[in-house]
Amino acid sequence: xxxxxxxxxxxxxxxxxxxxxxxxxxxxxxxxxxxxxxxxxxxxxxxxxxxxxxxxxxxxxxxxxxxxxxxxxxxxxxxxxxxxxxxxxxxxxxxxxxxxxxxxxxxxxxxxxxxxxxxxxxxxxxxxxxxxxxxxxxxxxxxxxxxxxxxxxxxxxxxxxxxxxxxxxxxxxxxxxxxxxxxx
Length: 184
Known about the structure:
Elements: E1 17-19, E2 24-27, E3 36-38, E4 43-45, E5 49-52, H1 60-67, H2 70-77, H3 92-95, H4 105-150, E6 158-160, E7 168-170
Antiparallel strand pairs: 1-4, 2-3, 2-5, 6-7
């Protein structure tokens, strides 16, 4: 779904794995940095992916939530092989014997509803915080700009600086070339 960003479609699809919509897809090399999810598509993917089809006792999204559990991620990382810890590959043989908590299906559904509600609230708060952070960054920049171009005294008499981008400066300031006060 990335278009031309990321991996390119191979010419030989015979080594690719078939993925069905709703299957849990795990990048065996990047799972520890969040490279897993429920496929929204029918299609193919690289052979480095693990494709899981939940059995009758596991709801698809519940399986995804198990993989979102940080303790489970850290546990799986102990099986990884590779030079870089965050790129250490795991395989189905590494994880198929691992234990997971499995609630009855009706309870899985209630857990999923709860998690959807709570994570949506958290995501909304994160979005609001990111907006606030952006506004604070803009405020920070404005405070810096005002202090270094207009000074701290709001009642100071001003004069035209003669520099277009600078506008007016306090009357008692000088305007000089940067090279007159700094050097390489």
